[in-house]
Amino acid sequence: MPSPTAASNVIHVSGDLFSAPRGAILVHACNTQGAWGSGIAAAFKKRYPEEFQVYRTCCKDRGASLLGTCLLIRGVNNSGHDIACLFTSRAYGKRKDSPEEILAATRNALMDLVAQKEDNKALHGCRFNSGRFAVPWESTEQVIRELDVSMTIYA
Q1: Could you tell me the residue range of the domain that residue 95 belongs to?
Q2: Which of 18, 29, 127, 138 lies 20 to 30 A from 145 at CA?
Q3: Domain total for the chain?
Q4: What's the pLDDT band for 1 if we cut at 50, 70, 90?
Q5: CATH of the domain at 134
């Protein structure tokens, strides 16, 4: 793996998120409508179709009430990874929440993730919120830093 650059509790590396070490939690941002249709979410859907169904069912059952929470799917397909779905927007596309709403939901979802995760599990994510949700990465990274959440970020 290339040498990381540290920024407080966030470590930046170049590479593929899905190559994270066994035992890691793979973190990504989701909508509450049950669609992993584009961006990194589409890659999760292709790689983890059974886990997509867990996410989709959760969204059908709870809908917008999921905003600001985290669905932690454990023991994924013998990959050695868990998946953390941060519910940061109610919708997607043109109906996605505003950047301010997404950042507020991100703060709450990260706190929920930290409350659920096992201490020995490292968090690995992409620059979530910055793709299809169009929130500047620096804004999301600031939330991670303020919460003092340790995370490796892949670019």
Answers
A1: 5-154
A2: 18
A3: 1
A4: very low
A5: 3.40.220.10
